Amino acid sequence: MTEEAGAAAHARTVLQQCIHAKLQVKPADEESGAEWVEINRGMVIYISFFKGATEDIIPKMVSTLLNLRLCEADSGKYTSVLELPGSVLVVPQATLGGKAKGKGMQYHNNIRKEEGLRLYSDFVSQCERELDSARGRRAEEGAGDKTTVKHGTYGNRQVLKLDTNGPYTHLMEF
Fold first, then answer.
1. In terms of DSSP H, where are the helices of 77-167?
2. Which pTM was predicted?
3. Is the link from the previous residue into 85 a cis peptide, with omega within 30 of 0?
């Protein structure tokens, strides 16, 4: 649901906690094998931007998504990926902007590819900065960790392998 009743969404995300996730960012070809990025415990964020989206929504998206208490801690309580500490895998997912028309899907509300790539890159960068900041705070407290942000390739079809500790999936619009 968007913040203002009746306001059009400019981005849609789906969040999924995970134990391990692996995303193919480049398929195998004649010269080399497939390339993958992977994370351990944390969160997968599928993201799509719509027409009218600007970089102004990115800081709020990053803050909201990374601070939501959606990850199950060892104690059984839910905590944010920043507090866990956990890693983040960002997956561009243009199909989140689809609407059914007859027996097919249409994507007329999706942002142009060049604009979407710019916003996606900005989103990933801001997630990296936020996770780096949280990692720095934990290091000051004497708790080291190996949290990271990994991401898919915008505009490409990608293979995802996901191990989760429950289908605890959430849809958020901005």
1. 113-140
2. 0.90
3. yes
